[in-house]
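Hi V.,

You were right to ask for the full record rather than a summary. Here it is.
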Amino acid sequence: MFNSNEKYPRKIVAEKFENKIFEDNRLGKWDTTLVVHNDNLVIFMNIGVPGKSGHFFNNNHNSSSREITWYGRPGTHSDQPLMKKIIQNQVSPFIFARWDNSDDFTFIGKGNYVSHTDGVTGFDSEKNEIKTLEVKFNYV
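Predicted structure:
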């Protein structure tokens, strides 16, 4: 469906999953960082730059070890239904990343859950500390 290390606009990702054409750039649920579609979870993450909302997390991609460290939205924790599905491998994560907010997303790969940590620190747009969930994946 996607080629590793290839860039995709968010709209193309949405169209491939939905199997339809979006006539404009109003993508609904596809404009968010996490999209559940059937048994798939699409993760759109920023690495080294804050998101468009201004939140900054230390998301990381290690291509040598094929590992991803991803942080949830502020307040995310492992007892939430979607996070439980990730931890229990009930969804298949498709991981996309970008290193520049003005760029398209690069398809990293399909993730496999490795571990998680609750209560990890991140920062909001005003540099106030917030707590969230850290999830580690390896990918193929």
